[in-house]
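Sat 14:20. Reprocessing the chain from the morning session after the first attempt stalled halfway. Input below, unchanged.
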Amino acid sequence: MASEAELVFFVNGKEVRLSRPDPEMTLLYFLRKHLHLTGSKLGCGEGGCGACTVMVSRYDHLRCEIEHLSVNACLAPLCSVDGMAVTTVEGIGSTKGSLHPCQERIAKAHGSQCGFCTPGMVMSMYALLRNNCTPSEEELEEAFEGNLCRCTGYRPIVEGYKTFTKEACCGGPSRGGKCCLKGGFDEKAGDCQLTCDSQPGCTSAKCCLNGGCGLRGEEVPCCQGNGCTSGVKEETTPIQNGNQDAPLQIKAEKRKPNALFDSSKFIPLDPTQELIFPPSLMLAAPTRTLAIQGPRTKWFRPSTLEQLLELRDLYPQHSSPDKPQYRMVVGSSEIGVEVKLKNAFYEVLISPTQVPEMNRIEVTEEGLLVGGAVTLTKLGKKMKELVKSMPEHKTRSFAAILEMLRWFAGQQIRNVAAVSGNVATASPTSDLNPTFMALGVKLNLASKGHSRTVVVDDTFFTKYRQTIIQPNEVILSLVIPFTREGEYIFSYKQSRRRDDDITIVSCGLRVLLEQAGSDWKVVNCSLGYGGMSFRTVLAQKTQQMMVGRTWDEAMMVDACKLLLEDLPLAPGAPGGMGEYRHSLVTSFFFKFYMAVLHKLSPQTIPAGVQSVIQPYHRPHTRGTQGFQMVPDTQVPSDMVGRPMMHQSALKQATGEARYVDDMPPYQNELYAGLVMSTHAHAKIVVDTSPALKIEGVRDVVTVCDVPGKNLVGLFHDEPVYADGEVTCFGQIIAVVVADNQMLAQRAAKAVKVTYDDLPSVITIKDAIAAHQFYKVERVISDGDVEGALGVAEHTLEGETHMGGQDHFYLETHGCIAIPSGEEGEMELLCSTQGLHHTQLAAAEALGVPSNRIVARAKRLGGGFGGKETRTVSLTTAIAVAAHKVQVPVRSILERNEDMISTGGRHPFLGQYKVGFTNDGKITALDLKLYSNGGNSIDLSYGVMDRAVLHSDNAYRIPNFRCRGWVCRTNLASNTAFRGFGGPQGMMMVEQVIDMVATKLGKPVEEVRHINLYQERDATPYGCVLTECRLDRCWAELMERCQFNERKTNMEAFNKANRWLKRGMAVIPTKYGIAFGLKHLNQAGALVHIYTDGSILLTHGGVEIGQGLHTKMIQVCAHCLGVPAERVHILDTSTTTVANSSPTAASASTDLYGMAVKNACEQLNERLKKYKDANPHGGWEKWVIAAYLDQVNLSAQGFHRDEDLHFDWVTGKGSPYSYYTYGTACSEVEVDTLTGSFTVLRTDILMDLGNSINPAIDIGQVEGAFTQGLGLFTVEQHVYLEGNTYTQRGQMLSFGPSLYKIPGFSDVPVEFNVSLLDNAPNPRAIFSSKAVGEPPLFLAASVFFAIKEAIRAARRETGFPTSFLLDSPATVERIRMACLDEFTQKALEIHKGDNKTWTIIV
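Finished this time. Tokens:
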């Protein structure tokens, strides 16, 4: 066939022509490595995080319209964008030119913290606006279903972008000034309308002019949820400048609308100013045949059906892995992941996207004919149109499919994934296939010279991921039938997280009924299930039983019983969760039964069951933010106490902010691919020769090449390279150094490693049984525990587990090692929180002094403790590689490599015995804590220290003992994570209090409150609490959140609803601020003043997204009395501040703030003479005068905390500078039939002293809470038990496909955060308090609210309300704890199952 081998497309308005490109190359790789457009980020490589989002525009010649699509560039093959226009974040605006409103609003609304996800957010919003310049809030939130953020908690992103929506209360300039503040609220239109600027105002109580939000129609003291809170008394509060005698004064004023940002100043959105679609692409031929030969893969894009069938005949799809692999590709959403994670290789890829017959979508007499290449987005759009325009009974099939499409992946995937691809891949956990099977969807298949039609029925899927489609056939089209009168179909899906998640169980359930008198009889039915076998199946026996039966409860009961026989799961079946999956099978059928019954006879459905038949709908996210305003007398240029934007936010929003892998390549730079262990514990033999034979491979580095010490780490127990033995999955065995990334990673897989397995220990219980502990035991004790337990009115004992957590920072670990060639000198550009440790480890491995190694960090794309020490595993190995080859070497971990090798939060086991009184007062508690440390000590001792010291949380327990042990296992070493053991210790005591309250039949909030610490109480380790504001936080929060009133309403709701239950919980926190090791509580800073008056500030802290640099700029500017714009921070380096402590422990603002202040005080003292001599001269003149007078305008600042002490021998001391306090109340709604839940509302009140930057601090509170929400609910590490095909201890939950962090729709629907007023902290810079870690544990309020909802369900069914719920409260655990007739049957059939498929640690 006639074809071309040149790609023609546009990037940011510029034409790109490529001759013979590599078909294996992704669009993202090309953008970053060839065009050096590094704004688009690689976050996961599997289309699960959205960091790589770009907009792809194409011209539809059939419809004569331009389509704008958000696309995952990490999955999109470069060849797939031929004839299209690609727009990246750099193409829409920049700080050097003009910003696009999408970029400005996310930055100024404080929606960018670490910034790594921000370009993807911007481009998702941009693509939405290009299609609809005034989207609805629903469309807005739908656009971000494929985007993840680990920092912000999502609320500020939504709030910033809500200003674009048609519902936005204050549209400001983007709406032409049409705001109720300038005219009035139109009650009928439900919108703000410009009537007359001279009009006195709107009288509606809903209007933002009068304190409410017109959109919600509520008396909410908020305008757009941007921080407008009323009724604060005007008071003056001293702000102590550390140890400075004269305090600043900040007056608490009535808060004003838009306190965190002012939307009226946003750049207007002008759709006429966007990049136009290239005319040359519109004028190009509608179809163009491509045939591209790459180094290993061929890419074909036929333009006719005849060409397609010829190619398919020549390159059939073989099911045997022994034969050459050829694939059809449309969106690459499946193939891209297979290549990335399963090492798949395809010699030929055929793209049918230009074949007209494959792109049809049209209504026929039978139903909807959908071409095989039609995307899910187009299908959904067409079906929505038909549902609106056609009779309801005909489109029930479409409604069922639309229900599944709501939860199918993210917008970026749906924009490119083909309908036929979902069928052809034959996934047993498919979302759509069960519904297709239930409907009897027809497939029109074609091959060269032949065509046939088949039905998706119980014979269609033959084996695991195999169908009856022949190797040379293509799915030309699908026919989705209309439904008839009396025919009903509903679809259901359950996954770990609602949005963008893989199915646990899905189903499409259909029935055709006919009326027989007053009854309805089943004519026929089809019940399709996914997730219950190696293929999608029909419940044949159940279907046969139902035919002819009356649609009544007896039929439903019989069907549920038979379904469990129809869909068996053997012990240890792949996927695990046997009891849960079986409970879903029957729960879904019950929902289906009730939904059909409601259609037939709505009046027969009891009111309490109505909720079970309603499709899930989540209200739009909203919230308020409250904080103390600065007084009007404060100089406008003084930003301390003001919500100043993150200093890098605009650069992050434009893609200009650079991270490690964004750095331009160095001359002669090579890339390092890692050879990692694929066994948990084994002796190894390594053969590097296969990799060395590959062209472009320059060297392979092993333990033999380490010139210095091979054992590094805090306790020198971690090999740089494995030496004859591996002790965990992901341990580095060798490094392959090659010309580029693709080649290095491919060659690393060629290194042959032979394993001789040794016994492995994976869980805490394994370690206890094997007596595998690290040597240190931690103990604190107060009072007479045994005596108090002996005389207690009541005692309880038990144990509880708390799972670990992956950091899931969006930027994985990365490093560039640059040898200088002189005296062993080397520079390390790395993503690390601990530059000093990184420097020291590299020096030890290279056998040189530390002064030869420079470690540098510009910014990190998140860290959360995971980059404090674990960085050295990568940086040291790469340093050794660069030393050997003597050229720069770069290596960036893939997401799966990062998750497998770098560890996470420590899982904990707690065992307790507690004594208490009749009124709930805890009199004694004996706790034992065990943590899973992994294969090296790392920071596990410190984590256990903090866990033990925080195991009292916020409660005074007079007789208290806690002991802690660290278990040695064959997992990758667990490490620091936000909270550093504190949340684990706190969770144990909260579980105890919950059980105490349940035992006594008392409200748990009452038991919590009566045990709270009070002023001057002493902790079990002897620290007397001063300025303890726990009780105040508790009381104010209870009043603000209207706890008692809402609890009454909640109880009424629970009585009125059988299958939906709500729960509320209030949780306090007390978090100690300081490093556990006294010597780490020190900090340095360096301030240079240049003769033009500009200031260069350097300190030892690393910007991770927490806003540290921004706060230091505020501190420096305030201390020197200059505008913040004069101060600049370049980066953090061991050359400017030596021996810096890790940026961790929430202490960086305290430590570095005081160090900066110290340096500024020195400079102020030197400048005083010139200020006094010329008081009106101004900053520049004072600086010049001092310079001319030969005054040193550089100052080194230093600070140390001296009053800290603790003795583990006695278990007594004062280990913390002070405590940060807070309280949270959360309310949840649980679907007890599935375990799904919604956080309806969360209110948080934090004591953060006097905030230096309320926007950053509130963002940290929201982000920490959301991370905690993941910890306590959805995030779960899962490992394989091991069988013939897998290894024991192999992590299953790597990457966003199988490890779920909270998404946009998981955060509280209403999210209210306030900072405690009039609460100065004399022990930190400007009376502030640390914020990074303390709020995380408040998310336990969601966990215990879920537990209360489960109790309500158990109470109704007569089961005991005292029960164990381990953390995280996954949907599986929630559902199985609810206990009802469905779970009981599921438990019965799995009774005695001992074989497991997975290990939960």
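The two ends are 56 Å apart (CA to CA).
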